[in-house]
Specification:
Layout: E1 13-16, E2 20-23, E3 35-38, E4 44-46, E5 53-56
Bound molecules: zinc ion.
């Protein structure tokens, strides 16, 4: 409890895995209406309400991430 309340905290950086993110400020006194942002051609986007920075995770190429759905389930529909 020794932090100076007048000192502006640095922007919070949040690592995400999608270029489309939603932010509502986390609720509470710093909350704001839910907004959706798209990074477009960039790999990060800053929320204009709370200055949070959403950064796209760069862990592609690992090859060990789980698949969203199993392939070859034999569905010969
Ligand atoms: Zn925000």
């Amino acid at each position: 409890m020794s932090q100076d309340p007048t000192l502006s905290a640095p922007p919070e950086e949040i690592v995400v895995r999608a270029k489309r993110v939603a932010c509502d400020g986390g609720g509470g006194p710093l909350g704001h209406p839910l907004v959706y942002m798209d990074m477009g051609e960039d790999d990060f986007v800053e929320c204009g309400y709370c200055d949070r920075r959403f950064v796209l995770a760069h862990d592609e190429g690992h090859g060990d991430y789980h698949s969203p759905a199993p392939r070859g389930s034999g569905d010969g529909h």
